[in-house]
Amino acid sequence: MPQVVTIYGVATLRTFFLEGQAGRLEAILNEGEAHAPMAALICHPHPAGGGTMHNKVVYHAMKTLNGMGLPCLRFNFRSVGASAGEHDHGHGEQDDVRTALDWLAAEFARPILFAGFSFGSAVGMRACCPDARVPSLVALGLPVAHDTRRYEYPWLASCAKPKLFVSGSNDEYGPRDGVEQIVASAAGDNTLVWIDGADHFFQSPHGSKLSQMQAALQAWAAPILLSS
Fold it and tell me: What is the pTM of this model?
């Protein structure tokens, strides 16, 4: 049964499980406004690095979009937390994203804004680009390379949907030249925002840069929501 947490009699979040192809997926829905023009799906970074739906970047992206009225769904990929299954190196995880999209579409019957961080952005965009239910996408900390993992995005050349890319200028997994080449290869209307001095997790020696990431996300999303 879903667990509903309430504050002052108003439901703020629901915890439950999605029924995925590899088994159930642990999920959290932060409730939005009843007449929000879109819903949002936010995906987490790589499990090998401890990535979960509770990651700080994922949480702050959710807070931004939820603060704009959108109901926001986060979930743990297969093998993460209480989710079933085994890690599938980004392949089966695309099916996990589709499971989440199916649930959001059935629950809210409105367009879905996708946002992902790191591994979540790579896997999520791959699944969402061809999906007509997702008109716009956000990639936070787009990964290019990490240890033996290499990320390539040839399919972005046929993804003409509006896309926002936000990365730190000191991102150790997404160097500027690599990210800029990927964004330049993508079809459609693309916005690239660099957060000066930030690393992959939007941190710096002088403190957190998460608020700057949130500001970039809000500024980009606001006109999209108004036109929806």
Answer: 0.95
